[in-house]
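Fold it.
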Amino acid sequence: MATETKIDPMHQFQIDPIFGQLGPNNPFVFTNATLWTLAVLALITGFMLVGMRRELVPGRWQMAAEGLVGFLNNMVVTSIGPQGRAYLPWIFTTFIFILFANFLGAMPFAVYPGLHPFTVTSQFTITGAMSVLSFLIVLGVGFWKHGLRFFSLFVPKGTPFVLKLLITPVEFISFAVRPFSLGLRPFIAMFAGHILLDVFGNFVVQGINSQSAAGYAVSALSFLFVAFINALELLVGAIQAYVFALLTSLYINDAVNLH
């Protein structure tokens, strides 16, 4: 007899307490989101410690770390100029954190029942906070270097006065929504991909439980979709990390060079 299963693709994004309250009068709890954030930080720390050994004959990890730093350094210098190296630590931090968080959340394993992989970048509070920090850096650099002349960023040079009255508000709104769009992009990409994986994964289970030829065919087809989407998520995860870092460097470039 076939058993009914309920598809709940949103359950994987639920933040649940693991160890309960940290104290009798402490409202803070240790959650699954905290656990996987610490796991991401631990992986990044391990990767960088191994990659920074500076051996005479570089190993694979050292070459990977140096290649990653060199890749981002070239991107920053191309986007901002030689003075862009001052902002490389933050851009590198955003890139490697989003990359490792996306990859870890896509791994098909569970530590303990209820502690399935949790993609921290599927929470807008994480990507949104990173984008706000990037935006604050842009504002800080812009006003520090140019003072009130930073507002000229919203007024294109050589534009007739009448057009300036129309273009300036549009430019200001476009600038103001940057932190929202910057954080929304990786959040939506991971959120949508994980929902698709959960839905097709449930199709696999339901097709097998139906114990029919059509059900088995649906399960096989759904399994192929799961494998394809999982591979696509790894690619999208890397692309989103790159796009976040690239847009951050371009926004900083606007503040530094004030085009």
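The helical segments are 32-51, 60-80, 88-105, 124-146, 161-176, 178-210, 213-257.
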